[in-house]
Amino acid sequence: MPRRPIMVLAAFILLIAAGLGGYAWMSHELHGPRSSGVALVGGPFSLVNQDGKRVTEKDFLGNYMLVFFGYTYCPDVCPTELQVMTAALDQLGPEASRIQPVFVSVDPARDTPEVLKAYVANFGPRLIGLTGTEAEVAAIAKAYRVYYAKAGNGASATDYLMDHSSIIYLMGPDGRFVKHMPYTTDAAKLATELKETLRTSP
Predict the structure, then answer these.
(1) Is 9 helix (H, G, I), strand (E, B) or coil?
(2) Element holding 66 (H helix, E strand)
(3) Most CB within 10 Å of its CB: which of 40, 80, 144, 187?
């Protein structure tokens, strides 16, 4: 074979190999090793609930967790999503007892257990609020791949908004990630997703 076609063929093979290598690297970064098939979301945490009690992920084993990250001073997104979660669980009837709704604050400076207690009471008796130190909140946010940051300077040290991810996470009875639902998911759709998961689980 002439030298030029051989060089072209070799360059083409190298290009394909580089593309496959780049795809494999991106897949590993986003989802972990392909052999595991497990999303890298969730993990150990230690926080304080609205009653001031220290809890960890082990306290929730045995039930599904429906988790949303936000803050009590949130003007719209957080109350809307918590209402969606509450309404979806209401639609499940008795099956809702298998799912524990959880609200994790990304604003520990203002969201003390006392503040959380008054806030979560607006969304039914089952919702658990969690807070902690700055480091503890940062650790669970990192584990769940949640973004949050103070927005702007605010009028004072206690008057500010928080930018944050608006995703509802469903974690399994074993503490592992099951699926997530975006901000646009309404109560009916969320209830359908939860019913399907419960139907196919042991």
Answers:
(1) helix
(2) strand 64-70
(3) 144
**Considering all CA atoms of the chain, what is the largest pairwise distance in Å, rounded to the nearest integer?**
80
Q: Rounded to whole angstroms, how far apart are CA atoms 76 and 57?
A: 28
Give the pLDDT confidence of 126-138 residue by residue, as tens digits: 999 999 999 999 9
DSSP state of 165: -
Give the Cα separation of 115 and 29 in Å (integer): 37
Written as six digits, the tokens of 8 are 């072209």
Percent of the chain whose pLDDT exceeds 90: 73
Which residue segments constitute the domains of the chain, with CATH numbers given? Answer: 46-200 (3.40.30.10)
Alpha helices in 32-154 (DSSP H): 77-92, 113-120, 134-143
The values of phi and psi at residue 128, to 5°, are -105, 130
Collapsed DSSP state (helix, strand, coil) of residue 2: coil
Distance CA 202, CA 107 (A): 36
CA distance 101 to 125: 10
Rounded CA separation 180/170 (Å)? 6
